[in-house]
Design a protein that fits this description.
The complex is a heterodimer of chains A (201) and B (219). Chain A is built from seven helices and seven strands. Chain A is of the alpha+beta class and 201 residues long. The radius of gyration of chain B is 22 Å and the shape is elongated. Classes of the chains: A alpha+beta (201), B mainly alpha (219). At the A-B interface, β1, β5, α2, α3 and α4 of A face α4, α5, α6, β5 and α7 of B.
Chain lengths: 201, 219
C-alpha cells in the first residue's frame, strides 16, 4: 500500500492507487466509478487509431453519404451539404447543432489527440500541453459520430419506400470512423499521458 | 468489490481538491473549505479551475432541467418534419414517426426511435429530478444505485440526437420538387434544445453530492 493518493471523481473518496496489471481497470471502492485503466502501448495504439480516424474523417466528409435513385437520376448528399440545406431551410440552430456535433467537435478532438500524442511519441512535450488537454476533455462528450451513423441508417429505411437508396463511400467511412473512434476512446489513457509528459520534462 | 471502512475519508474532508479534467490531486489553500475561496484555485498541473464541489451545482442543474422540461412539450407536440406532395401536406411529430414505422412493419426502428427520442429524454429528466431531490434532502437511500443511475444518464443522453440527424439527412436528400418536399419543422429546434439542455444539466450535477450526506449524518 504505497501508491499515490487519488480521489474518486464521482464520490471524492480518497484511496491509494493500486498497482495495476496490464489491461487492468481500477474502480472506486465505494461508488464503482472507473478511476483509470492501464493499456499496453496505449500511446502507440492511440496514435495509430488517431491517424486512421483522421484519414476516415476526411473521406467521410468529402464524399456523399447517401443517394436517392429516381427515374435514372441520382441525388446525393454529403454531410456538409446536409448542414447547408438545414441552414437555408431557416433551421439555423439545428444546422449549427448538426455541424458542431458531427464535424467540428470530432475534428477538434482528433486534432487535439494528434497534437498531444505525436510529439510525446518522439520524446517532446508539445507547447500548451495543458491547454490542449483541457480542450480535448471539454470537446469529447459533444462528438456524436456513432449517433449520427444510426441516424443515417434510420433515414435510409425511411426513404427506402420513396426511391432506391444508394449507400455512398462516406457511409462506409463513417461506419469505420465510428468503430475507430470508439477504440480510441477505450485505449486513450489520460493518466499515462500526464505521467509520460512529467517524465519528459 | 471490497467495502470501505465505516468512516470514508473524502478529498474534501482533508482539503484536497481533485482536478476534474486531469485527475491531479492538490492541496487547497488554507481556508479553502469555504466554497468561494476554493473557487479561485487552479490545478497545478493543467490549470483548470478547481472546486471542492461543482459551483452552485444544484440550482444550475435545476435551472437547466426545468428549461428542458418546458421545451419537451413543444418538442413532442410540434412537427419535426413537414412533407408536401401531390397528395397534400403532412406534418410528422416524433410520435407519428414512431407509429408510421410500427404500422409499416419496421417495428425495430419504431422501437429504436421511441426509445431514443421519447423514453430517453423523459427518463433522463426524471432521473435528474430524483437525484436532485434526494441530494437536497440529504438522503442516504441507495447511494450506490443512484451513482450508477447518474453514470447511466451521462452515457445515454447523447443518443437522443438521433431524430435530429434523421431529419437532417432526409431534408437534405428529398429536395425533389416533383416527388415531394420535406421541410424541417419547429419541433426539431425544441427537440435539439432538450437534448443539449439535458446534457448540460447532467454535466453541472455533481455526483459527489450523493455521497456527502453520509459524512454529515455520521459526523
Amino acid at each position: 500500500m504505497s501508491g499515490a493518493l487519488t480521489a474518486c471523481h464521482e464520490c471524492d473518496l480518497l484511496q491509494r492507487e493500486a498497482a495495476l496489471p496490464q489491461g487492468g481497470i481500477v474502480h472506486c471502492a465505494r461508488c464503482g466509478a472507473e478511476l483509470f485503466r492501464s493499456h499496453p502501448h496505449s500511446l502507440e495504439r492511440s496514435l495509430a487509431l488517431t491517424v486512421s480516424a483522421v484519414v476516415l474523417f476526411v473521406i467521410a466528409n468529402s464524399f456523399p453519404i447517401v443517394g436517392l435513385q429516381l427515374d435514372g437520376q441520382v441525388i446525393q448528399t454529403t454531410l456538409f451539404n446536409t448542414v447547408r440545406t438545414l441552414w437555408h431551410e431557416e433551421m439555423k440552430l439545428v444546422a449549427a447543432l448538426v455541424f458542431v456535433t458531427t464535424i467540428a467537435m470530432p475534428a477538434l478532438q482528433l486534432f487535439a489527440v494528434a497534437y498531444l500524442l505525436l510529439p510525446l511519441r518522439f520524446g517532446r512535450v508539445p507547447a500548451r500541453f495543458a491547454l490542449v488537454f483541457r480542450i480535448l476533455q471539454t470537446v469529447r462528450p459533444w462528438g456524436m459520430v456513432e449517433v449520427f451513423m444510426l441516424g443515417v441508417l434510420v433515414s435510409l429505411v425511411k426513404l427506402a419506400h420513396l426511391a432506391g437508396v444508394v449507400a455512398g463511400i462516406a457511409l462506409w467511412s463513417f461506419a469505420a470512423l465510428m468503430l475507430v473512434m470508439a477504440g480510441l476512446g477505450a485505449v486513450f489513457d489520460a493518466r499515462g499521458l500526464w505521467a509520460r509528459a512529467a517524465a519528459l520534462r | 468489490m471490497n467495502r470501505p471502512a465505516a468512516a470514508a475519508v473524502t478529498g474534501a474532508s482533508l482539503g484536497l481538491l481533485n482536478c476534474h479534467v486531469c485527475g491531479q490531486l492538490s492541496r487547497a489553500a488554507a481556508g479553502a473549505h469555504e466554497a468561494h475561496v476554493a473557487h479561485a484555485a487552479r490545478c497545478p498541473r493543467c490549470a483548470s479551475a478547481l472546486h471542492l464541489r461543482k459551483p452552485d451545482s444544484i440550482s444550475r442543474t435545476w435551472a437547466l432541467l426545468v428549461a428542458a422540461m418546458i421545451l419537451y412539450v413543444p418538442a413532442n407536440m410540434l412537427p419535426m418534419m413537414k412533407t408536401s406532395s401531390l397528395f397534400g401536406t403532412q406534418s410528422d411529430t416524433i410520435m407519428s414517426g414512431v407509429i408510421y414505422f410500427w404500422t409499416s412493419g419496421s417495428w425495430y426502428l419504431a422501437l429504436i426511435i421511441f426509445f431514443a427520442s421519447i423514453m430517453v429524454p423523459m427518463l433522463k429528466m426524471l432521473a435528474l429530478v430524483l437525484l436532485l431531490v434526494t441530494v437536497q434532502k440529504g438522503s442516504r437511500w441507495q447511494r450506490e444505485q443512484r451513482a450508477r443511475l447518474y453514470r447511466l444518464v451521462e452515457f445515454v443522453g447523447r443518443w437522443s440526437m438521433l431524430d435530429i440527424y434523421v431529419v437532417a439527412v432526409i431534408v437534405a436528400l428529398v429536395q425533389l420538387k416533383a416527388l415531394a418536399t420535406i421541410e424541417p419543422g419547429p419541433g426539431a429546434i425544441a427537440f435539439g434544445a432538450v437534448v443539449v439542455l439535458t446534457m448540460f444539466a447532467a454535466m453541472t450535477f455533481d455526483p459527489r453530492l450523493i455521497w456527502d450526506a453520509r459524512e454529515k449524518n455520521d459526523g
